[in-house]
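To close the chapter, one final illustration. This time we ask the reader to focus less on the individual chains and more on the assembly as a whole: which components sit near each other, and how the overall shape emerges from the parts.
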Amino acid sequence: MIRPALSRRPHFGLRARITFIYALGALLVAGAVAFASFALVQRVLLEDFEEAARAQLYRNARQVRSNLQNQSVEVIQAALAAPEEDVPEEAGALDLGDILGNLLKPNGADDLLVLQNEPRSSRGLELRSIPSSLESLVKQGGAGQQRAIVEGQPKLVSGTYIAQLDAEYYEAASLETLQSTLDQLGFTLIAVALAGGVAGAALGYYSTRRALQPVVRVSNAAQAIATGDFRTRLDPTVDPDLAPLTASFNDMVGALEARIQRDERFASDVSHELRSPLMTLAASVGVLEHRREELSDQAQQAVDLLGKDLRRFTRLVEDLLEISRMDGVDIHADLAPVVLAEFLHFAVQQSRTPEVPVLYDQADAGLIVMAEKRRLAQVIHNLLDNALKYAGGATSVSFSRTGDLVRIAIDDNGPGVPAVDRERIFDRFTRAGADAGRRDVAKGVGLGLSLVAEHVRLHEGRVWVTDRTRGTTGARFVVELPVGDSTGVDEEMAI
Amino acid sequence: MHAVGTRILTVEDDERIRQAVKLALEDEGWDVDEADTGEVALERFRDRAADVVLIDIMLPGMDGFEVCRSIRRQSDVPIIMVTARNDTHDVVAGLEAGADDYLTKPFAPKELSARIRAMLRRVRSSDGGSMERISIGDLEISPDEGAVMKAGKELHLTKTEFKLLVELASQPGKVFSREVLLERVWGYDYFGDGRLVDVHVRRLRTKVETDPASPRYVVTSRGLGYKLQP
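The assembled structure is written out below.
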């Protein structure tokens, strides 16, 4: 039976998946909370900052207005006419730079006064740095605020029109401190969100361990049952969520146990009932065969027929009982170390085709497999019988080792096995040519190869059939078995 | 072919099988005693000792294992268990109850005769051999007398156990494969049942070893066979 190798796609266990979902959930929740807090804090801080800047702007604008509105036009003209660096010395002269420099600016803003289209600043803020949309708004007599990059720095630029002076007054406050505060907050919140995810994973891992404990117990119990221990039961529980599972599991095992006991008793009874009359027949035929010479010719022929068919019928019953036992739960091979070359030599010698050569590399003469001799002998005999029936006999039995596996090949020169039948022939009651309606009773009932498959399965091996290669026709049945521990038998064997 | 007057006791509840087996055994020239239950069998055996006892495992009332144990308590007569199932449990339980060999129904009379003859040979060969006395540790084996002494006290071995011990003692320190032991002790070919050897080694250990769980004399060699540690 060739079983296709299972595709190896990675998949995660229930616990891993639950843990992952917990972690993802916690991360999402913590992330959302962090994002919301960040957005909220950012808005509040910005609004506060803007409001403070606005209040400061209006206060300073009023201050400028009160400083300048009583000055005569000439004085203002003189102040504006003077270059910025050249401060007028005379008394009564107006120093715009001083006025602006003396304004209170707790947020450290730069100032800019545009009076009669002449910009003046105590800190070097230039008119071209003012966003044009804000400037036009202020020029039309409005007031406003706008965030902008000024000389590569994020700034909040506020501006208002001073009607009495027909002047514009601007302040540009640095947002850098606010930005770094927000950055710090952002980093902290990301860290908190990640920690939330990790905590979620830990919680998921821990809680699934508790939650999956009943599943683990059920799985352990099921495993014990699968290995044949039908007395295994789950401990009764008071947990209302688990009680139905426990109860139905135990009921199921109970029913299964009863069923299997019934089946085993039945099989045992059948075995006994079939073997008893066969025993009487075998003993009686034995007496007749022993006294064959005393019988007439006709009676001798009858005894020969009787003996042959009794043996065939006995084999059939043995095979049927054997295959029915294969369905039992506690079925296993009694494995013992077997020297394969020696074993095959004897197995072939005892078969109906003892002349078939056993071929192997001399280096493998001491190769050991773990096998139950009786079962493995039946495998070899059934394959040799199969070759005898369908191909006139095997041409060779050979074996070779590849790594931890040994392949025993039984070759013949027959018609081979069509590709479509290559798996089917190992099923129960399948026979070559059965589809064509041929019923050749002498060829057996088709249990031989299915017994081969079952015995090989009990040895944790595989069996399959292929065409022979290298220009010859015929079938090659291959039995693959794991190699036993044969690392140099250093003991001196008695012979 | 064999000594006249060799007596076989067959214990079998199925009347037809009993009759047929009796016919077959008598046809081979043996005297046959019959019993249809375990209780009757023990009575017969007390009245007149048999040379070989053939016991069916499935008996009404006292089962075959119990009959086997009872006979074993009073005699080292060769016992063949007959089972209707070839499963490990019956075979091993029968051997552990003290049987020397087993047969699975249905068997040919020729097969049974061969088993009986092998058993009788075993008994006789230990009567008339000429091997030297073997001393290993505190064991002293006298093949000629069929006796084993451990620290000066005589051990009670069955004929098969004794033969097994003598075989192992013939080449101390050498490993005997199951196949070799099956051939020399039981007269089987290569395909004899290795469980016969394993269970008999277990039984032998309970008698010759001080601690059968960690044997000093009869040791297992890497699963390949057994040897007598000199």
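Chain B has a mean pLDDT of 88. Chain B touches chain A at residues 14, 16-17, 19-21, 23-24, 27-28, 58, 84-85, 87-88, 105-110, 171, 173-178, 180, 189-191, 193-195, 221-225, 227 (CB under 8 Å). With these observations in hand, you are ready for the problems at the end of the chapter.
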